[in-house]
Amino acid sequence: MVADIFMEFLEQSAITSVPVECKTELWKRYVDDILEIIKKQWTDGLTQHLNSVDDTAEQEKNLQMPFLDTLIVRKPDDHVKLLVYKRTTHTDQYLHFNSHHPLQHELSVVRTLLDRNRNIVTEEKTHRKQEEHHIQTALTRCRYPDWSI
User: Fold this and answer.
1) Which residue in 3, 57, 59, 112 has a CA-CA distance of 20 to 30 Å to 46?
2) 28-63 pLDDT tens trace
């Protein structure tokens, strides 16, 4: 894949030439998404360095940073909470229950959404319940019966 080749180039170029003070504490990559953790005072330096190699680096905005299906939110005490992330263009369109697909495919939509909520969201009482309600509403619009959810 071209994306893999480019990402290998980016990592080799960026990581080997990064200034010592900008070394990351964590560097995780999945396809073309990278999450790095660095001391707050060095984020601008790392962003400038990465953008000198390829102009695509982003910093957290409003104490939030999306990574794959996860929204990482930094709380005032500098702990983090994790939420399910959906792009603003997400439409909640899932496999319609009345489609001509095997039942196990339709039920796997339910299982996947609920598992993602259970495995990502860290604050059970509020955000997990809100996401469960959102899933139920979206799947009801796609004609999933109550027993399937």
Assistant:
1) 3
2) 888 778 787 888 788 787 778 777 777 666 778 898
